[in-house]
Amino acid sequence: MLLKEIRQKPQTSSKGLALVASALGCGVPAIKPQTIGSKIVNGQNAISGSWPWQVSLQLPNGFHFCGGSLINQNWVLTAAHCSVVVSYHRVILGEHDRSSNAEPIQIKLVSKVIPHPLYSSTTKSNDIALLKLSSPVTFTPRISAVCLASSTINILPGTRCFTTGWGQTANTTSPMILQQTGIPITSPAVCRQIWGQSKITDAMICAGGSGSSSCMGDSGGPLVCERSGVWTLVGAVSWGRSTCDTRYPVVYARISQLRSWIDKTIASH
């Protein structure tokens, strides 16, 4: 499917706004997301620019195949099963409506693809990869980094977090507008009960099963939780029911468990 023409679009944000956005630090959107009453299967349109770390991984013809999260000016975190990324694939930042050619997006190529060395395509454990961008991103009110979950973070089951993406919706079509949905964190015990004891590893975190879900095309995208106005990346979309059945929780790569590898990898590259 040919989506939109991919081309560099002019930056329309003022220098002053860009400085304000960069001063906010990670995980603080300059444009606040709508998180009240949000229930991307059975999700809702996001407010344009409100999830500024969300990226779209695309083919040169504009076909979106995976999501990802901007974690600093040089690196994007996605799923290892998405990391068929090669030199001609593109990282699109600041996008909201994929059918529009008027948005102030930034387009980057990937200089390095580093999947987790213990990623298993069979079990999907350690399902993250780091993409080093060919040149640094310029932070704007619509483009900024998310904070990474610390290795000691403890997220209580039932906590309402958010996932975003352009993946398939209930009618199996891929939306042009970025979708969001609020979903509860599922306890490891319940997740193992649903998916099987051996399938859920310590490097996984589950969320959903409450009427909305991530789906194909959302892979690699963010699961974020908010505290005191700061959003933290706790998961990257990994796997779930092939039918995107919203009664089942989706499994995400657990960032806290993988944080040490992320830090070491960025420091050494």
From TrEMBL:
Pfam family, one: Trypsin
Cited InterPro entries: Peptidase_S1_PA (IPR009003), Peptidase_S1_PA_chymotrypsin (IPR043504), Peptidase_S1A (IPR001314), Trypsin_dom (IPR001254), TRYPSIN_HIS (IPR018114), TRYPSIN_SER (IPR033116)
Superkingdom of the organism of origin: Eukaryota
EC number(s) reported in the record: 3.4.21.1
GO BP term (any one): digestion
Keywords, in A-Z order: Digestion, Disulfide bond, Hydrolase, Protease, Serine protease, Zymogen
GO cellular component: extracellular region
Keyword Hydrolase: yes
Every Peptidase S1 domain range: 40-267
Record's subcellular location: Secreted, Extracellular space
SMART domains (alphabetical): Tryp_SPc (SM00020)
GO MF terms, alphabetically ordered: serine-type endopeptidase activity
Main localization of the protein described in the UniProt heading: secreted
PROSITE patterns assigned: PROKAR_LIPOPROTEIN, TRYPSIN_DOM, TRYPSIN_HIS, TRYPSIN_SER
UniProt protein name: chymotrypsin
Organism: Cirrhinus molitorella
